[in-house]
Amino acid sequence: MMILTAPSSAELVIRNSRFLAEALPVATQEDARHILKERKDKYNDATHVVHAFIVGETGGILGCSDDGEPAGTAGRPVLEVLKGSDITNIIITVTRWFGGIKLGTGGLVKAYTQAAQAVLDGASIIPLVKVRGFSVTLPYDVYEAVKRGIVSLDGEIFTEVFDTNVSLTGQLPEEAAPSLCSLVRDLTRGSVAVVLQEENQTGQKV
Fold this sequence. Notes:
Elements (H helix, E strand, L loop, with lengths): L1 E3 L3 E7 L2 E9 L3 H14 L5 E8 L5 E5 L9 H11 L4 E8 L6 H18 L3 E14 L1 H13 L3 E7 L3 E8 L3 H11 L7 E2 L4 E4 L2
Antiparallel strand pairs: 1-7, 2-3, 3-6, 4-5, 4-6, 7-9, 7-10, 7-11, 8-9
Helix pairs in contact: 2-3, 4-5
C-alpha cells in the first residue's frame, strides 16, 4: 500500500461545470468526516461536494457519497479510482459548480473519474510500512555505534536525553526491530535491552 506525503489538487472544466478535486492524507474515518465538513463549509456556493475515502493498513475501511448527484455517478467512480491506486489513508473530495449543462449519468461518471485520476496523477506518494516504536538507555561508550545502527536500519530517533546515560526514543521498520535488539545486546554484552512498543503502528518510510 501507498500513502500521500502532502495534499494535492486538480481542476477540470467539463461542459461549463467546474470540478475541483482535492486529495488529502487522513489517519481515520473521523479525519475523513472532518475534512469533508471543512470542504462543505469552505465551498458553500458549490452544487455538490462528492467524496470517497480509504483508510487502514490494508485499505479495509472505505466509503463514498454522491452528495445529491444521481446514485452511483459520483462517489462510486471516485472510490473505484482510489481502489485501483493502491493508496490508503486518503480522502478525495470533488467539488462541482454546475455550469448549466446537464452531463447525463454517463457524463457524470466520466467527469468524476477524470477528476479523481487527475488529482492522483499529481500526488506525491510513498510506500506504507509497519513500524515499531522503541526506547533504550545506553552507556556513552556504545551510544554512537547504536545511533549509526539505527540509521542503517532505516530508523528514526525522536528524542535523545543525555544524563548519566543516554536515553533514546524513536521508531524503525518492524522487520528491523530484532536487528536493533541484537545490536544493543551485543554491544552491551547483554546488560541493556531495547524496549519495543507492544503494538505495531503504521508509519511511512521515505
